[in-house]
């Protein structure tokens, strides 16, 4: 499955892990940077209220539209090639956003950054699993990759706030462009090419239906934050759902589908996909909105708000690195269920915000949710690779990340809607705090639902294992009975 470089020697697995993790880290920093720089960016480019939503969700459009496609292309035509192309596109798109003279070009850059992020994220788990054999070393490597997800979320808002204070909002993207250039170089030096020996046929209808459907759905969710009854919102959501149904029909009919729907018979794949979806829906969605709540209801500065968020994301880094110690004690599907439940408990503990108060009481909940998130990221990385055939590892990664970021778009929309429904005679700050209290309870309930689905998958997985074990002696007996006449005849 690996193409040996001209020198005949494969590069160090550690260098592959470093490159894949750095790419993931950079993508998450880019994705989360607007959390603390939205106001100065909007003021400088005269971005309207409705268009401000697209500063963050524009990246989600590119991610959700191309992640699965990028994963499939990486498996068939080269994981290094797709990853490297993503790094180049990230460089170009961050330069575009940094130099953008108007809203249109800036948002175009953000959407292209999402496309670049899809090309970088989709092959990462395939690249790692290609150089690390099944066993403890792969589990440790996947845990380190999971830690890079949390680290990127932790660093992004803090980095952006510091850079904006030092050199303005454009410096955030100029430095990201410089780091992207470094990633291009690291890709050339640190990765070996790997791909399937026999590329699959192209699935153009599937690509078109998935990309269009995901884009319409996320666009509808983004616009819905400003009113769900508007015609454009209903139209975008309806078209998105129809196109995604069309994608499923196309995949069920083509000989070599981009996403094999038979994988949904595998409890591990269901746990991986649903776990990623609920991670975005209940955790990433809420935490993405938390800095806004801290600034508008508690009066925190952007830098202080990003520091509070770093309690959650920073601890997720630590727990992801330690998650390998659970491998021999707990199945990956069980880890997903338990981690979602822990995250739900942590989110529920955030309840009690009040305008003008202190963020101190949020710390215990952020600590609990951070520990759960790190273990969850590590477990989902394992399942994304182990629940699909080895030659489809990048597709598994793409499917997992597609579910996560589609869930994130929906999660941000749900959180914003719940927060906006709260009213208070005491003023907007009090209304924001009351709405945030409602949102954390909704997010906690969604986490519990996700945990229940993962627990069901674990039960189904265990049942299938028992059936397989019970049928094995029967198969051995049949084989012995068949072989006996042959031995007599000889």
What's the short version?
The protein is an all-alpha fold. It is 80% helix and 0% strand. The chain has helices spanning 13-32, 34-45, 49-77, 79-99, 103-131, 136-167, 169-190, 204-224, 231-253, 267-297, 302-322, 332-348, 363-386, 393-421, 428-489.
Descriptive overview:
The chain contains 15 helices and no strands. It is globular. The chain folds into two domains: 13-194 and 258-474, MFS general substrate transporter like domains (Growth Hormone, Chain: A), CATH 1.20.1250; 204-257. With 490 residues, it is mainly alpha-helical.
What is the C-level CATH assignment of the largest domain? Answer: Mainly Alpha
Described by the principal axes of the CA atoms, the overall outline is globular
Q: List how many beta strands DSSP finds.
A: 0
Rg over alpha carbons: 23 Å
What distance separates the N and C termini? Answer: 42 Å
**Helical segment tally?**
15
Write the layout of secondary structure elements.
Blueprint: H1 13-32, H2 34-45, H3 49-77, H4 79-99, H5 103-131, H6 136-167, H7 169-190, H8 204-224, H9 231-253, H10 267-297, H11 302-322, H12 332-348, H13 363-386, H14 393-421, H15 428-489
Helix pairs in contact: 1-5, 1-6, 1-7, 2-6, 3-4, 3-5, 3-8, 3-14, 4-5, 4-7, 5-14, 6-7, 6-11, 6-13, 8-9, 8-14, 10-11, 10-12, 10-13, 10-14, 10-15, 11-13, 12-13, 12-15, 13-14, 14-15
Descriptive key words:
globular, mainly alpha, 490 residues, 15 helices, 2 domains, 80% helix, single chain
